[in-house]
Task: structure prediction
Amino acid sequence: MTTRLIVFFFTLVLPTLAWTQDADFAALFKQGTQHYTAKEFEQSRDAFAKALEKDPHNATTLTNLALAQFQLGKKPLAIGLFRKALNSDPELTPARAGLKFALTQMEIKEIPHQIETYESVRAKLLAPVSVIAYLITTALFLFAAGWILIGFMGQRRRALAEEKALPGFPMIGTFLALGFLVSLTLLSLKLYDQSIIRATVVDDKVSLQSAPGENQVALLDLYGGMEVIVQNENNDWVQVTYPGSITGWVKKSAVLRTN
Result:
């Protein structure tokens, strides 16, 4: 497995390196890379963690740190870091491939729950696409549809004034207008989704309790790598919902916020 991940590192991660102007960051990133390829995973983890202190939202660094944590046996934490990287850059292929691989290594991937329509839409249409991509797509649909429909209205006005045959109905413009509405809807959902605080369970197993504090009634068990929605906080405890299931409290240290 170690060999597979090192090959993965060279073929997917190294080509996506995005250096900043911070020389310290670049030096730490280089150290992390060198330690990883030498299979010195603890040193690699420490170097990438220090690099993140200088650029907390660097998706490539988060991905590399996730790889190092995975090699150290911290699979749930690695999954959380991959998700955090994808929150910064939803189109980062190494992070997506790493998350997919890490999830296959977990013994328990989910617990019985009702699959919500919104979560299905999010997984297929929202999470893999950035806000910028939806903004550009929406703007292009608006421009193209507007150009065609405005031109059609001008042709129609001239035809009426000159008592000529009216132009044909602009089907392409209509389809583009529908595309604009769909894209605008997805953009709105994407912005809404970013307001939802999500986290990943990083402990191997944690009890979801009915109230914050020790020795409360346990509602069910959550397992490492599962994604939850953060609802509230109370000192060292956080209230979370497992999508499609129930809401309860876990220790704040048991989860990693990913957005």
The domain at 198-257 is CATH 2.30.30.40 (SH3 type barrels.). DSSP finds nine helices and seven strands in the chain.
